[in-house]
Amino acid sequence: MAGGSDSSPASSACRTSNLRIAAKNQSEARQGVGSILITFTNRDRDCRMAGCPGTNLTTNYGKYPVDRDKQEVGIPFTLRRGKTATADVVYPFNNTGGSGVHVTTHMVSPRNETHSVTVPVDISLPVGDKPTGRLEVTPDFKSAPYKYAPALAAPGPQIP
């Protein structure tokens, strides 16, 4: 199994300092929806992961927190040393023809962790007077690579 098994409990939650965190734009995962794949690779002893990671996007207009997927709660699991877990930031793909809001970096942390890692990304979010979709992060999953694109809910928090 890519992310380890759940047969023996880990003593503590995964911490930013013990993980290699990366983000990669998956572009248009399906029509109108883009995805940023977040990977967490454990560099230390076994640890526990559960729920959605904390994520903020840095844009040319400031920082924006990404909503957690309320329909997917995730299943707690042990992330073994050297294994990888993934989550996705799902976003409305900018196909408006305009420049949109340019996202340059992505701040990521495991759930309930106060320290984050900033990773570069390069995406453009749509801007308009009508709802364009939601920014949303999925829970951590223990198999990688994993591509997930839930249905976009509208209206929701909108990009300015």
Task: Map the helices and strands.
Blueprint lengths: L18 E12 L2 E10 L4 E3 L4 E6 L2 E4 L1 E2 L8 E3 L4 E9 L8 E9 L7 E9 L10 E2 L23
Question: What labels describe this entry?
Answer:
160 residues, mainly beta, 5-stranded mixed beta sheet, 4-stranded antiparallel beta sheet, 11 strands, elongated, disordered N terminus, disordered C terminus
In brief:
The protein is an all-beta fold.
Instruction: Output the number of helix runs.
Output: 0
Rough outline = elongated
Order of helices and strands: EEEEEEEEEEE
**Count of DSSP E strands?**
11
Tell me the span between the first and last alpha carbons: 41 Å
Textual characterization of the structure:
There is one protein chain. The N and C termini lie far apart (41 Å). The protein has a five-stranded mixed β-sheet with strand order 1-2-8-11-6, with no helix packed on it. It is built from no helices and eleven strands. It is mainly β. It has strands spanning 19-30, 33-42, 47-49, 54-59, 62-65, 67-68, 77-79, 84-92, 101-109, 117-125, 136-137. The model is unreliable at 1-8 and 144-160 (pLDDT under 50).
